[in-house]
Amino acid sequence: MPLSDPAVRNAKLAVKPYKLTDGEGLYLLINNVGKYWRYDYRFQGKRKTLAFGVYPVITLADARDRRNQARKLVANGGDPAAIKQAKKLKEKQLAASTFEAVAREWHEKQSVKWVPKNSARTISVLERNIFPYIGSTPISQVTAATLLSAVQKIEKRGNIETAHRAMQISGQIFRYAIATGRAQADLSLVLKGALTPVRETHHASITDPKKIRDLLLALEGYSGSFITLSALKLAPLLFVRPGELRHAEWSEIDLNAAEWRIAAGKMKMKAVHLVPLCKQALAVLRELKPLTGEGRYVFPGVRSYARPMSENTVNAALRRLGYEKTEMTGHGFRSMASTILHEQGWPHEAIERQLAHAERNKVSAAYNYAEHLPKRREMMQAWADYLDGLKAGRSNTVA
What we know:
This protein is an alpha+beta fold.
């Protein structure tokens, strides 16, 4: 006898599973957890079972409609279970090929070679600006127009650099999708020139010798944390990037060899970098070591020695000394050194290598961290002596 709605509704759950049959292969399987619609049929001589869902989400009428559709498929030579499985597989493949899925897969693979900060920044750009608009679209179906529309929303907020960054990241994702067979074209190439150009900016820096002298004397007079004071003293001597300075570890520094060897993973160009330590830098480090030498970081944070100092510490100290961000920044020590050293005639190659600027040949960059090292050692010591001369007020100071 066919089932009725009251019979299905009133059927009791039981520890021992049992069936209520509706007819033509449809039945309700009941256990101690719930009620499940099932359909038994034969295909090519084999008995098969198809699941239709859970009652009451799937009503009796719904289950009968699904049974009737399945019976027609069987009558026409189709296998409902195989068709359902193929549909699920297609949906799974589609889910794995959305822009967001491909992007996260790409990010996971690439982030192993990035510093955590860059990895977090990259995924944040995508999550805030790209995924909400094209994340659920299969990457093969994303059009140049939809990508541009998403990126232009960033541009309209005035974040031009972020818009270009988002386009650059998207291009890398498309190229990864092409390599893995899920896209045919890098749409970022099609959209080249579609965004407002980034206005080139330079980190604020002081390059006038008299003003450099005033700055150095101001740094010497800093009355805050001794750790911060030490970082301020080293910043002009070493002119590394602020992130490289604050992440310095004692294990990387060899005071006897007078060098600081920074691992490739910490460097912007992903190549080992060697910083010769002048006598003045060694003096600062030896004075600091009794305070922080037992820990990992040369410049630990205020709240925990297990973490490096805040990325804003040096800039905040400069502000405290009266230097606005339009006058001087932590990054500005690099421009200061580069400008003066070039003016004094030091070899461009030695200066660029010491600044760890981009190496066109990445293989060469990996092995040439010691390139021009004798000249760089000489230059770094001469630079420190030049700065001492400025502080002492010697007008004829040269590097």
